[in-house]
Amino acid sequence: QVQLVQSGAEVEKPGASVKVSCKASGYTFTSYYIHWVRQAPGQGLEYVGVIYPSAGTSFTAQKFRGRVTLTWDTHTSTVYMELSSLRSDDTAVYYCAREQPHTCNFDYWGQGTLVTVSS
Amino acid sequence: QSALTQPASVSGSPGQSITISCTGTSSDIGNYNYVSWYQQHPGKAPKLIISDVTSRPSGVSSRFSGSKSGNTASLTISGLQAEDEADYYCSSYATNNDYVFGTGTKVTVL
């Protein structure tokens, strides 16, 4: 069965960086896109970006450009999202989610990773 | 991209029908038939319930239906059940590989 399993919760100080992983299984990794979405406590969903494993490219929403780095390891079917220069308002649950190419919807989601930014 | 606008809350009695609106612009909902709806229970990841404006993924109840007119999409839940109590988010593809989500709607079953 399709699974996206994310790394555990993180606590970081302002100004630091955090790297969250998302390991995919149950399907051909390179045949699907992986997106990142975050949700601040009690707030709505916010789009972060996407990686295209088969094309070897990624896209980051304008708000996060310069602070988010999306990478992946095809050998381990794992996607990584690194967020730098952390601020308190980056405190959120970060989700990875799968998209079948060109469908523009997210059919499977990871369980989420809570990133807490606190001094 | 500004968030799509949804009502903060909608409520209904068991068996009733409710509709949640999702208003965007000509740069997202109005220009693409790539509107999705997600259901999120507390502490859980979102779940896809409607894709491509009107399509239901396999396993999703037929009580959920979607539509779109102009820059506004809608989700209707018919035969409301206690298990439908959750937060609902719309989403649309936007220009230049971007996506935008709605502000979210809390559905309460009275």
Strand content of chain A: over 45%
In DSSP terms (H or I, runs of 4 or more residues), the helix count of chain B works out at: 0
Low-confidence stretches of chain A: none
The helix/strand series of chain A, from N terminus to C terminus, equals EEEEEEEEEEE
Alpha-beta classification of chain A: mainly beta
Q: How would you characterize the largest beta sheet of chain B? A: 6 strands, mixed
Shape descriptor of chain A:
globular
Mean of residue pLDDT values of chain A: 96
Instruction: Please identify the structural class of chain B as seen in this structure.
Output: mainly beta
Helix content of chain B: under 10%
The percent range for helix content of chain A is under 10%
Give the termini distance of chain A in whole angstroms: 40 Å
Instruction: Please mark out the parts of chain B with pLDDT under 50 across 5 or more consecutive residues, or reply none.
Output: none
**What is the approximate shape of chain B?**
globular
How far apart the termini of chain B lie comes to: 35 Å
Provide the residue-averaged pLDDT of chain B. Answer: 96
User: From N to C, what is the helix and strand string of chain B?
Assistant: EEEEEEEEE
Number of strands of chain A: 11
